[in-house]
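FAQ: What does a multi-protein file look like?

Like this. Sequence, then tokens, then the next protein.
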Amino acid sequence: MKIGKIISINYSQLKVRISSEIRGSSVNLHGNIYYFGNIGSYLKITNAVEEIIICEVVSIFDSDLHQEKLSFDVESNRELLLKPIGTINKENRFALGVGVFPSLYSDVSIV
């Protein structure tokens, strides 16, 4: 399930803005509760070469910036700072580190 979009990328961190449709730090999906907004929880992002990037939540904050114009369906104030941990390739093998980073406004999903 998609929970937000990447709004900033640097070599060691990704900033994610949580979708305004999501309230709280958990979602109920088919009767299962998934916690995503806690320090130490994991999220996933798909990059341009179809690898899944696994990231750990390292910071949670509420942006106080108000923008009049909305873009890319990103209108919430809540943001997460993620640390990329590794990638899962097409053969479902996990490797530490990230070779190809995701692009701006890529979808972020629960693991």
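And here is the next protein:
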Amino acid sequence: MAFDYFTIQALAQELQGRLQGAVIERAYAQSTELAFAVDEGDWLCGVSGREGLLCLRREAWPRSWRASDGPEKYLMRARIVAVEAERRERILRLCLERRDRAGRPSFGVLVYELIPNKVRFILHRQADGEILGYWGTSKDKSPVGKPYQPPEPSGR
């Protein structure tokens, strides 16, 4: 799917209206797929890579989808604080807040880089940018543990 500026802006507005304030209850991931469901019954599913896609669904969560001990575990019980779209780039950000075991808040960002031919998803800490989870193409080298670097600007 081609994500142009107008599509991403419209998508961000719709996701903001449907997901802001919601709590993530379920998460599922494979190396190139990421999905999560919120308390409202909506779920967001993304596939990275050359033919990447992102869709918001309202239907039953697939029974075979279970969270593993991978980085998607950091999404569980996180509240979606905001949905933001970059003005000039094809990037969508979900700002997340989650309480640790001691009840202290921690903040993260789930980045959807919706760039044609290289759609990818990155979960990083808001404070220091350390990448906690990465879902890209199978050819990509995982940047987990490194600081998040946005893609080079397209110059548009």
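Q: Is there any per-entry metadata?
A: Some entries carry free-text notes. For the entry above: The chain has one helix and nine strands.
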